[in-house]
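Troubleshooting: if your tokenizer reports a length mismatch, compare your output against this known-good record of 207 residues.
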Amino acid sequence: MDGSWNAWFSNHPYLRKTLEAVRVINPNHGAQWKVRPLVHDLTKPLPFKENSFSSVYASHVLEHLYLADAQTLLSECKRVLQPGGVIRMVVPDLRAMATTYLKSKNGGSLTPERTIAADKLNEMLAFRSPAPPKGNVLYRSYALWKDFHHHKWMYDSDSLIRYLEEAGFATVGERGYLQSEIAGIEEVEEPGRVTDGAGVCVEGRKP
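Known-good structure output:
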């Protein structure tokens, strides 16, 4: 499930190719989907009945929502899960970012050959790009209107556990890569989003 125009265009590949050919939109080779995505705005109620699913999985999603919207989404996830169902949330690890910043702090040196620790931290936080969006008027308007790609709130394991518990989930705790009660987790979880400080996984159950 995704609300971006990349998800919408993945369901309309010929239209996308046509618009790319006439340069109305830019090619985005990173937006490849293995399945046909359901296009939906996650700030709105999930379009499913109560107790519909045995598991909910999201990787690098919550940080793209304002905290209030993320909390609402977690409540919606609980609603659509069956009793005993599992939720697994993977987000960028704020603690790992802070640790990297402190280790790489270079005393404020501005020499071109050295990485500025604050700049690196800003890149990892991804709250904003270094420059305004580029491209034609259509893309710039879309990027400013939707603002899908920037982060709006960051989490470490402690804060994510707290918000899942506040949403009503039980037995909530941090999990490692592929360490999950969701059967077939290896089919969806990517190591590049979890390992080496890339992300933190938190899992819980609907009572």
